[in-house]
Design goal:
The protein has 2 helices and 2 strands, in the order E-E-H-H. By secondary structure, the chain is mainly α. The protein has a domain of 30 residues. The N and C termini lie far apart (45 Å).
C-alpha cells in the first residue's frame, strides 16, 4: 500500500496498492480476477466514494488513582 498524510490538520493523500497473484490459470484470467475483485472490493470502493465516517460511541473509563469529576 502506498499513501501518506499531509497538511494541518493532516489528511490522506491518494492511496494505491499492489497485489501479486499466482495460480494455475492463464495470465489473462488471473488479471481479469484482479480487475474484478478491485471493482467490487468493499473497502476500496467506500474510500473511492467518499464514505462519511463518524464516531458512533466512545466508552471512556478513568484509570486507577484518578477521582471522577462531574
Amino acid at each position: 500500500m502506498h499513501g501518506d498524510f499531509t497538511g494541518n490538520p493532516a489528511t490522506s493523500t491518494d492511496i494505491s496498492y499492489d497485489v501479486r497473484v499466482e495460480g494455475d490459470a492463464p495470465a489473462r484470467s488471473l488479471r481479469d480476477l484482479v480487475d474484478r475483485v478491485d471493482a467490487i472490493a468493499e473497502i476500496p470502493n467506500s474510500l473511492r466514494q467518499g464514505t462519511a465516517v463518524r464516531l458512533h460511541r466512545a466508552d471512556v473509563a478513568a484509570t486507577t488513582g484518578h477521582t471522577p469529576r462531574d
